Inverse folding.
């Protein structure tokens, strides 16, 4: 099963970002991809919250979501939008992923569970919880590439989420991201490989890359990792489209050799000795 990953440098204009995604969907479909994966914050990447607030919309009015749904239907291809910032209830935003089928219908939504609040040695400060509300549950959805477990960026660091997704039947894990360069260089590859190995599942991680209009820099290196932990695709730092094959037989083979899911047990109470 051929998939496409879109590695992009999203900016502060949703209309411009929508054009990039629509063109990528058309190109990927023409190349024979059954499903297209985009990064976290595909519709807008802007840490100036006052400026971003002027263009952010509800899901029903989001121009990027509407454009990608129309492109998916036109080109008869499934699309996983890694995430969009959409207005939610209670005055906060949702960092929301969408799975769109080849008719343009939304098959699944997932709101990012773990929010990134940190002060980095570089001087960068991130307070995702100041603007975003966390999600309330995990999501698995049937797609052409298999049972797809949804997550977003910082979720990567929380192994319990991927245990829950694979216990629920996920054979492929989507981990779209906008990783910073320091954390990407240190942890991106090793954590992606670990999640694939632990779950005996493919990991598909479409990522933001490069220098963005709002002044931030992201790591790139969109990845596809197979269930044995081998890297099938690493897109490096250049924006563009990458392709990989998802082989269900590979999943079955790895899970037969190392049946970790079948051997999982509830962890008993921890004793402090």
């Amino acid at each position: 099963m051929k998939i496409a990953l879109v590695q992009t440098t999203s900016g502060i204009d949703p209309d411009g970002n929508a054009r990039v995604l629509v063109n990528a969907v058309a190109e990927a479909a023409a190349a024979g991809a059954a499903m297209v994966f985009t990064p976290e914050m595909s519709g807008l990447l802007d840490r100036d919250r006052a400026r971003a607030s002027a263009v952010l919309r509800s899901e029903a009015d989001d121009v990027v979501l509407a454009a990608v749904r129309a492109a998916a239907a036109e080109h008869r291809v499934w699309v996983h939008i890694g995430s969009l910032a959409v207005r939610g209830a209670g005055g906060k935003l949702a960092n929301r992923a969408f799975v769109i089928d080849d008719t343009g219908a939304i098959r699944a939504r997932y709101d990012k569970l773990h929010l990134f609040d940190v002060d980095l040695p570089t001087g960068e400060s991130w307070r995702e919880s100041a603007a975003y509300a966390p999600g309330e549950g995990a999501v698995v959805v049937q797609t052409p590439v298999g049972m797809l477990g949804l997550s977003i960026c910082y979720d990567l660091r929380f192994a319990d989420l991927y245990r829950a997704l694979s216990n629920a039947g996920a054979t492929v894990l989507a981990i779209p991201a906008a990783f910073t360069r320091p954390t990407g260089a240190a942890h991106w590859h090793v954590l992606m490989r670990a999640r694939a190995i632990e779950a005996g599942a493919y990991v598909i991680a479409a990522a933001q890359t490069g220098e963005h209009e709002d002044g931030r820099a992201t790591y790139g290196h969109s990845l596809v990792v197979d269930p044995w932990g081998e890297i099938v695709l690493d897109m490096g730092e250049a924006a563009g489209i990458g392709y990989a094959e998802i082989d269900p037989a590979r999943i079955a083979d790895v899970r037969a050799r190392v049946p970790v899911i079948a051997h999982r047990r509830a962890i008993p109470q921890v004793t402090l000795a």
Remarks:
- The chain has a mean pLDDT of 95.
- The two ends are 51 Å apart (CA to CA).
